[in-house]
C-alpha cells in the first residue's frame, strides 16, 4: 500500500487547477489561435533572450524548451494571458495531451494508452533479472524521497545486463568490461524515456544470441539501466491517467506546496558545479537546499561512484585521457538533441572534440542535433547528471532529448503508439552505438 497515493491524486488535481491547466468550464468561443479544446497547450513565444527565458522560469512559468530565441511555455489559457500581460505574444503550438488511442498493447495497470507506473517498472526489472540470471543482475540503489520520509514511496532500482562471467556486474569500478549507464525518467513527465528504458532491457535479453549487435554488446560491455530515477514523480504523473500530471520534479514538498508545483529538480541537484539555478522552491528548475540533497540524486551518484572509475583530474580544464572508458546517457524529452557537456557553462569541456565525435556517431541513428546545452536547449543548467559523470569521472556523458516538439509523437506526452515507431527504434540503435563505444569513447 502507498498511503500517499490518494493525496498524490489530489495534489495532481491541484497542480492542474493552480496552473490553469484545467479548462475552467468556459462556454466562450475559443479565440483564433487558441487550443481547439481549450485544454493545456504548448505556447510558442519568440524573440526571447536567454536572460528573458530564465526570468520567465524563475517567475514560475513552465518553460519546456528554448531554441533560436523561441521558448515553449506550457499551460492553459490563464498562462497565455499572463504571458500577454508581460507584453509577449504566445502562439498556440500544440495541445499537451494527444488523443489516447486504443493501442491494443496497454499493459494492465498502465496509463495514457500503455505507459507504465513505477510499480510496473519495478516488477518488470525484477522479472527480467529473475528470468535471465545468466545475463542480468538487479540492484536496489536507494530510496525515493517519500520512502525516506516513511510516506510510501519506492526503491530506486538498477539492472546490470551482460553475458555474465565471474566478477561481472559487481558494484566495483574495476570491472573487466567497460560500462554504459543509462538513466531514464529523472524528469517524471518525460514519459517516453522510461518506456525506452523498459523496452531496451527486453530488447537486450531477447536479442542476445540472435541479434549480432546485441550479442556483441553484451559479450563485451556491461549495460547498467536505471529505468525510473524519479519514481515518486512518475507516480504523480501516472495518477492523472488519460490526462497525465505535469510533474517534473521529485515529491519533496518541504519547500512548500507551491500550488501543487512542489519538488526539487533532480537534474539541477547533482553535486558537480551545483548552485547556479533558482532558489525558488516553486520554480520547475528549483535546485534544492544543497548539492545532492535529494535521495534520488544520492542514489544515482552512489551508483556511478561504485561502477565507474574516476579517470579525470580535478581541474575543470583537465582532459580525461584518450584511453578513458565508459559512457553515461541520461534520457530526457523533448527537442531531438544529443547534448554534450558542459551544462553549467557555455565554455567547452577539455574533451569537447571527442565528445562531439562520438555524439555524431550516436546521432547518426536518431537524427538528432548534437551540441552543448547552450547550443541546443539554449541555456546553461548547473547540477545536471551528465556534468556529474563527465566532470567527476571523465566518462563520455550525454543527455538525449527524445521526440519532437509537436504532433502525436511530440511533446511531453506522445501517444503510446509512437513507441512502436521511430521514437523507440532510432533511440534503441543510438543507445547500442553508445554502448559499443564504451571501451574507448575518446578513441583509444
Ligand atoms: Zn528533462
* Average pLDDT, all residues: 90
**Cα radius of gyration in angstroms:** 21 Å
Task: Please give the order of strands in the largest beta sheet.
Answer: 5-6-8-7-9-12-10-11
How many helices does DSSP assign?
Answer: 12
Number of domains: 2
CATH topology of the largest domain: Aminopeptidase
What CATH architecture of the largest domain do you see?
3-Layer(aba) Sandwich
Give the CATH class of the largest domain.
Alpha Beta
Cα(first) to Cα(last) distance is 50 Å
CATH-level-4 superfamily name of the largest domain: Zn peptidases
Q: What is the N-to-C succession of helices and strands?
A: HEHEEHEHEHEEHHEHHEEHEHEH
Helix percent reads 25-40%
GO molecular function: carboxypeptidase activity
InterPro entries: Peptidase_M14
Signal peptide: 1-24
Active site: 401 (proton donor/acceptor)
General description of the model:
The chain is an alpha/beta fold. It folds into 2 domains: 22-95, Alpha-Beta Plaits; 118-436, Aminopeptidase (3-Layer(aba) Sandwich), CATH 3.40.630.10. The chain has helices at residues 5-18, 50-59, 77-85, 118-131, 145-148, 191-207, 212-220, 231-238, 295-307, 352-366, 385-393, 422-436; strands at 41-45, 62-67, 70-75, 91-95, 136-143, 155-161, 179-184, 222-226, 327-332, 337-340, 369-372, 396-401. Helix 10 (352-366) links the parallel strand 10 (337-340) and strand 11 (369-372). Helix 4 (118-131) runs parallel beside helix 6 (191-207) and helix 6 (191-207) packs across helix 12. The N and C termini lie far apart (50 Å). The model is unreliable at 1-34 (pLDDT under 50). It binds zinc ion. Zinc ion is lined by residues 187, 190, 267, 332. The active site is at 401 (proton donor/acceptor). Belongs to the peptidase M14 family. GO terms for molecular function: carboxypeptidase activity.
Amino acid at each position: 500500500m502507498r498511503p500517499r497515493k490518494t493525496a498524490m491524486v489530489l495534489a495532481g488535481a491541484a497542480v492542474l487547477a493552480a496552473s490553469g491547466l484545467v479548462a475552467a468550464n468556459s462556454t466562450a468561443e475559443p479565440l483564433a489561435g487558441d487550443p481547439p479544446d481549450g485544454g493545456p497547450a504548448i505556447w510558442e513565444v519568440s524573440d526571447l533572450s536567454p536572460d528573458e527565458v530564465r526570468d520567465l522560469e524563475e517567475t514560475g512559468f513552465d518553460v519546456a524548451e528554448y531554441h533560436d530565441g523561441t521558448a515553449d511555455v506550457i499551460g492553459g489559457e490563464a498562462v497565455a494571458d499572463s504571458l500577454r500581460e508581460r507584453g509577449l505574444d504566445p502562439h498556440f503550438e500544440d495541445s499537451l495531451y494527444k488523443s489516447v488511442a486504443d493501442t491494443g498493447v496497454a499493459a494492465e495497470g498502465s496509463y495514457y494508452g500503455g505507459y507504465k507506473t513505477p510499480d510496473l517498472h519495478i516488477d518488470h526489472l525484477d522479472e527480467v533479472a529473475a528470468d535471465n540470471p545468466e545475463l542480468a543482475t538487479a540492484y536496489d540503489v536507494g530510496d525515493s524521497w517519500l520512502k525516506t520520509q516513511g510516506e510510501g514511496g519506492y526503491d530506486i532500482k538498477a539492472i546490470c545486463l551482460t553475458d555474465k562471467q565471474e566478477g561481472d556486474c559487481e558494484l566495483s569500478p574495476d570491472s573487466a568490461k567497460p560500462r554504459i549507464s543509462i538513466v531514464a525518467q529523472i524528469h517524471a513527465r518525460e514519459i517516453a524515456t522510461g518506456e525506452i528504458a523498459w523496452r531496451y532491457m527486453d530488447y537486450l535479453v531477447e536479442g542476445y544470441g540472435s541479434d549480432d549487435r546485441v550479442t556483441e554488446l553484451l559479450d563485451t560491455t556491461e549495460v547498467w539501466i536505471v529505468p525510473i530515477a524519479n519514481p515518486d514523480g512518475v507516480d504523480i504523473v501516472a495518477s492523472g491517467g488519460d490526462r497525465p500530471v505535469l510533474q517534473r520534479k521529485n515529491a519533496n514538498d518541504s519547500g512548500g506546496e507551491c500550488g501543487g508545483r512542489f519538488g526539487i529538480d533532480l537534474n539541477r541537484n547533482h553535486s558537480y558545479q551545483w548552485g547556479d539555478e533558482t532558489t525558488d522552491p516553486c520554480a520547475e528548475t528549483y535546485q534544492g537546499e544543497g548539492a545532492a540533497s535529494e535521495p534520488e540524486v544520492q542514489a544515482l551518484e552512489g551508483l556511478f561512484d561504485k561502477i565507474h572509475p574516476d579517470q579525470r583530474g580535478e581541474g575543470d580544464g583537465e582532459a580525461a585521457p584518450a584511453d578513458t572508458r565508459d559512457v553515461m546517457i541520461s534520457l530526457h524529452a523533448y527537442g531531438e538533441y544529443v547534448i554534450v557537456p558542459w551544462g553549467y557553462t557555455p565554455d567547452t569541456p577539455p574533451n569537447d572534440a571527442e565528445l562531439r565525435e562520438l555524439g555524431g556517431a550516436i546521432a547518426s541513428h536518431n537524427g538528432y542535433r548534437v551540441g552543448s546545452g547552450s547550443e541546443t536547449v539554449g541555456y546553461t543548467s548547473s547540477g545536471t547528471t551528465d556534468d556529474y559523470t563527465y566532470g567527476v569521472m571523465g566518462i563520455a556523458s550525454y543527455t538525449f532529448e527524445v521526440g519532437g516538439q509537436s504532433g502525436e509523437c511530440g511533446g511531453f506526452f506522445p501517444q503510446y503508439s509512437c513507441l512502436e515507431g521511430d521514437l523507440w527504434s532510432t533511440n534503441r540503435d543510438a543507445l547500442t552505438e553508445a554502448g559499443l563505444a564504451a571501451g574507448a569513447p575518446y578513441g583509444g
